[in-house]
Write a structure and sequence with these properties.
This protein starts with a helix and ends in a 12-residue tail after the last helix. With about 475 residues, the chain is of the alpha+beta class. It contains 17 helices and 18 strands. Helix 1 packs antiparallel against helix 3, helix 9 packs across helix 11 and helix 10 packs across helix 13. The chain folds into 5 domains: about 90 residues, Uridine Diphospho-n-acetylenolpyruvylglucosamine Reductase, domain 2; about 120 residues, Uridine Diphospho-n-acetylenolpyruvylglucosamine Reductase, domain 3; about 90 residues, 2-Layer Sandwich (Alpha-Beta Plaits); about 80 residues, Alpha-Beta Plaits, CATH 3.30.70; about 30 residues. It is about 40% helix and about 20% strand. A 7-stranded antiparallel β-sheet has the order 15-12-14-13-17-18-16, sandwiched between helices. Strands 5-6-10-8-9 form a 5-stranded antiparallel β-sheet. A 4-stranded mixed β-sheet has the order 1-2-4-3. Bound molecules: flavin-adenine dinucleotide and zinc ion.
Length: about 475
């Protein structure tokens, strides 16, 4: 039997797509990588995923897993060879269970994150994973990339929230590890091996995630800071005054918000012209008034301490939403502005101010006129330190000519400051060479041994990560 016939037998002919416009699967969100799949295969459940993998293993066909196709490092689209099977997990979209007493949710990999957040909320519970792509990214993609997002400072990243997984192995077997246990020291942790493996070690088909009680209220504020150093000082003050009630702390540079203003002019900008704007979120177990008061008191103290200037505290849910929208619109605004050199770096919070001062200056000196779209999850030491071509220049051309040199400058500075060149987006195709060049030989040897042990045929997402 041919591979296509075997795939049709596994999932039904209607779910094996080979013709027509397949760009929703073959073109990535940034419109930077366009591949061509041998076929797009859309299994309905775990058994069908396993059947697809067995068929591919028999025929030696490479498999690229895909969830919502919102990944930013070119890991979830096929290459241009026309030989890779694109396995979409979108039809695995059932919520299997919410266990309110155990504070867990078990769902299939293709569930859209926002739908799971809503399902938890209906039961008075919080699934504390949140990112700007939540309307289309999937639980499986979140775990495969160990996604971070805007609540990591309080709740950790996707790995910290995951208690169990169900995985289809490279051999087409099903590993059922969907325990909702907080404690389970029975040998090597297979779950943590698959989390963050970007589709190179196995196919995640379902997961059990931690929930938390829904806070009674959250309140949001914006504060203007003169420098990253001030923003870091504000973070220290916010942590000491709000402790666990501090559930968001995002930094936005002036140019990032100018891009939002030009591409989304309808969004109100309460602190126009601020060199740096910090978004703070406070979650309170008592009520709205309390959450708001705590933020107001914090911001008054920050003004006194000289680590913030003008500030606004949202007085309604709608206002809170529109402040968050400013932050969440930055990736879209820069995508509309054109291609840029994207960086997703993390640094010790204590090193951020000096890093920004020195690296901003070094970039200007070397690439006069470049514009920095610097924003991110300051509470986690994670910056999206993106370098946009000078005004009027062609973004694609700038990328072709200077991306390698910009990367070398930025990543050398990150390494010197004790940081990471990939904080939350992963390696994919984009940063594979960087990984090979910057990880220690011992770390690379261990990673390659794991890959060889779990996927000896090398069929799962080849050319990504390693
Ligand atoms: P895809 O893009 O489909 O896939 C991503 C990778 O995971 C690929 O390598 C793919 O092969 C693999 N994969 C997907 N599903 C599975 C599966 N079931 N089993 C095995 N492998 C699989 N990320 C952050 O961490 N924090 C952010 O704040 C953040 N903000 C974003 C904002 C925007 C506007 C966008 C577009 C992206 C953002 N991201 C962010 C990137 C982030 O990686 C994704 O949004 C999300 O986690 C990926 O989910 P997905 O379902 O779209 O995965
Ligand atoms: Zn981010």
């Amino acid at each position: 039997m041919t591979l296509l016939a075997a795939l049709r037998q596994a999932v039904g002919a209607a779910q094996v797509l080979t013709e027509g416009d397949l760009s929703a699967y073959e073109l990535d969100w940034r419109r930077r990588w366009r591949g061509r799949a041998l076929a797009v295969v859309r299994p309905a459940d775990t058994a069908e995923v396993a059947a697809v993998v067995r068929a591919c293993a028999t025929h030696g066909a490479p498999i690229v897993a895909q969830g919502g196709n919102t990944g930013l490092v070119g890991g979830g689209v096929p290459d241009a060879s026309g030989t890779q099977v694109l396995l979409s997990l979108q039809r695995l979209n059932r919520l299997r269970a919410i266990d309110a007493a155990n504070l867990t949710l078990t769902a299939e990999a293709g569930c859209v994150l926002q739908a799971l957040q809503a399902a938890a909320r209906e039961q008075g519970l919080l699934l504390p994973l949140s990112l700007a792509a939540e309307g289309s990214c999937t639980l499986g993609g979140n775990l495969a990339t160990n996604a971070g997002g805007t609540q990591v400072l309080r709740w950790g990243n996707a790995r910290d929230l995951c208690l169990g997984l169900e995985v289809v192995t490279a051999q087409g077997e099903v590993w059922s590890g969907l325990s909702g246990l907080r404690k389970d020291n029975t040998g090597y942790d297979l779950r943590d091996l698959f989390i963050g493996s970007e589709g190179t070690l196995g196919l995640i088909t379902a997961a059990t995630m931690k929930l938390a009680p829904l806070p009674a209220a959250t309140s949001t504020a914006l504060a203007a800071c003169a420098s990253p150093a001030e923003a870091v000082a504000l973070l220290g003050l916010a942590r000491s005054r709000l402790a666990e009630a501090l559930t968001g702390f995002e930094l936005m540079g002036r140019f990032a918000l100018e891009l939002v203003a030009s591409h989304f002019p309808a969004l109100p900008q309460p602190l126009p012209g601020a060199a740096w704007t910090v978004l703070l979120e406070c979650s309170d177990s008592e009520g709205q008034a309390q959450a708001q008061q705590r933020l107001e008191a914090l911001l008054a103290a920050a003004l006194e301490a000289g680590c913030a200037g003008d500030a606004v505290v949202a007085t309604s849910l709608a206002q809170s939403r529109s402040l968050w929208q400013l932050r969440e619109s930055i990736p879209l605004a820069q995508a509309q502005e054109g291609l840029n050199v994207k960086h997703d770096i993390s640094l010790p919070v204590s090193a951020i101010a000096a890093f920004c001062a020195a690296t901003d200056a070094a970039l200007q000196q070397r690439f006069a006129g470049v514009r920095l779209v610097n924003f991110g999850h300051l509470g986690d030491g994670n910056l999206h330190y993106n370098v946009q071509a000078p005004a009027g220049a062609d973004g694609a051309r700038f990328l072709a000519e200077h991306e390698a040199a910009v990367n070398a400058l930025v990543f050398d500075a990150v390494a010197a400051a004790g940081g990471s060149f990939s904080a939350e987006h992963g390696i994919g195709a984009l940063k594979r060479d960087e990984l090979a060049a910057r990880k220690s030989p011992v770390a690379l040897r261990l990673m390659r041994s794991i890959k060889a042990a779990l996927d000896p045929q090398g069929l799962l997402n080849p050319g990504r990560v390693l």
